[in-house]
């Protein structure tokens, strides 16, 4: 998947009420190629009461949307852009890292982990 949990994204297609909205990815579901974006695709869920402490009622929750309907907002150029992958070389096979990069400004989106 081209997006990860915590990325800021722009919704580029889907329902007219969701299109053009920005938000942070709360959860990624790679097996279904779907993501949950905060304050996007809000649906009403009817919840049954579970015991005396938890009340029932109608809750509003963010439902998943397809990952192809979102575009990553680059933290460097602050623009929605497509992403690519590159391998950062290091000493030995273990230190190689695969990172995503912005195709608009050619900067890394993922920060490689530093070896201690």
Can you walk through the features of this model?
The chain has 116 residues and is mostly beta strands. The protein folds into two domains: 1-73, SH3 type barrels, CATH 2.30.30.30; 76-116, no CATH class. The chain has strands at 8-11, 22-29, 34-37, 42-47, 57-62, 65-66, 70-72, 83-88, 97-102. A five-stranded antiparallel beta sheet has the order 6-3-2-1-7, with no helix packed on it. Strands 4-5 form a two-stranded antiparallel sheet.
What can be said about this structure in brief?
The protein has 116 residues and is mostly beta strands.
Task: Supply the key terms.
single chain; 116 residues; mainly beta; SH3 type barrels; 2 domains; five-stranded antiparallel sheet; two-stranded antiparallel sheet; 9 strands
Biggest β-sheet: strands ordered side by side in the sheet? 6-3-2-1-7
Q: What coarse outline follows from CA principal-axis ratios?
A: elongated
Percent of sequence in beta strands: 35-45%
User: Which sheet architecture does the biggest sheet show?
Assistant: 5 strands, antiparallel
The chain-level mean pLDDT equals 90
Tell me the number of strands: 9
- Count of discrete structural domains: 2
Tell me the helix content: under 10%
Give, in order, the helices and strands: EEEEEEEEE
Amino-to-carboxy terminus distance: 28 Å
CATH topology of the largest domain: SH3 type barrels
CATH structural architecture of the largest domain:
Roll
Oligomeric state of shown chains: single chain
Structural class: mainly beta
User: Which parts are unreliable, with pLDDT below 50 for 5 consecutive residues or more?
Assistant: none
